[in-house]
Design goal:
Number of strands: 4
Strand content: 5-15%
Low-confidence stretches: none
CATH topology of the largest domain: Multidrug efflux transporter AcrB transmembrane fold
Mean pLDDT: 82
Strand order of the largest sheet: 2-3-1-4
Distance between the termini: 43 Å
Radius of gyration: 24 Å
Helix content: 55-70%
CATH architecture of the largest domain: Up-down Bundle
Largest sheet: 4 strands, antiparallel
Shape: elongated
Number of helices: 10
Length: 300
């Protein structure tokens, strides 16, 4: 295997308190951001409503589109540039007659730039009931994944390993969710898929470290448990950097040239890869040390 780091002796365990403090601060910032923004910024996938991607042939400003939507008493419509300078995303809340609303919006667009002066490139309509059901299904998918992980790791390793892995995964999701909140980015079905991908990626990284810890517990009997964990992290560090680095290159490329639709998915993966690699070292492993110390006290 390609060796970027040989015989590393970094004291990861000794710096775990600093790392945990940083994690707590990041999670707190995310929670505070969500509180100030009134909760998670769900897309129409979960909230219900109409999403229109429109492209005008001539130069049009956001203010023009907003003023036009205000004539329909749609002052709460979310309008943002999307891709090209003359391309916009317009999101409106759910109404009883979506077809009538869409026809009114078309007339408004024609008033801005003429009948042939615009093109609707994407149109999505989701009812509030369906949106609520999708939100529940997404939450259920994440919970089922977490339960499955606890069962799998408890069988393959021990229950204390499962606790460390789950705390690390929750940590990863919370920090990624906080990043979306701070940047006011929407949580859509695509982003939920990214979260589940993050869970799988982070778990894989954690299990590699756990495997080495379990091996070293049997071979390094003279070492303290803290030293065994630290040695194990250093021994897997080269593999971790290569795996994370190559994956990151692919995801960054996807974010840079994949287009606006795929960009939130790629952004979530970028944050998830960084945080997932960090948590397998500074969150999952220190929890093993704490749990092992607790068991040792009970035995005494």
């Amino acid at each position: 295997m390609l060796q970027f780091i040989k015989n590393a002796h970094i004291d990861f365990v000794g710096n775990r308190k600093i790392a945990i403090t940083i994690s707590v601060i990041l999670i707190a910032f995310g929670i505070i951001s969500e509180i100030f923004r009134g909760g998670i910024n769900y897309s129409i996938d979960f909230e219900g409503g109409t999403l229109i991607q429109v492209r005008f042939t001539n130069d049009v400003q956001v203010s023009q589109v907003r003023d036009a939507m205000n004539t329909l008493n749609k002052g709460d419509a979310v309008i943002q540039r999307f891709g090209a300078d003359n391309e916009f995303l317009v999101r409106t809340r759910s109404v009883e007659n979506e077809e009538a609303q869409l026809e009114q919006i078309r007339e408004v667009f024609a008033g801005i730039n003429g009948e042939a002066g615009y093109e609707i490139r994407r149109l999505e309509t989701v009812g509030p009931k369906i949106g609520k059901e999708l939100r529940g299904d997404a939450l259920s998918a994440i919970l089922v994944a977490m339960i499955g992980i606890v069962i799998y790791i408890s069988i393959r390793f021990q229950f204390m390993y499962a606790i460390g892995a789950i705390v690390a995964l929750i940590h990863d999701v919370l920090i990624t969710l906080g990043a979306f909140s701070e940047l006011n980015m929407e949580i859509s079905l695509t982003v939920i898929a990214a979260f589940l991908t993050i869970v799988g990626y982070s778990l894989n990284d954690t299990i590699v470290v756990y495997d080495r810890i379990r091996e070293n517990v049997n071979t390094l009997r003279k070492e303290s448990y803290k030293d065994i964990v630290n040695i194990s992290i250093n021994e897997t560090l080269n593999r971790t950097l290569i795996t994370s680095g190559t994956t990151m290159m692919a995801v960054v490329t996807l974010w840079a040239i994949g287009g606006e639709v795929i960009r939130p998915f790629a952004f979530a993966l970028i944050i998830g890869i960084i945080v997932g690699t960090y948590s397998s070292i500074f969150i999952a492993s220190p929890i093993l040390i704490a749990w092992h110390g607790r068991l040792a006290k009970k035995k005494k």
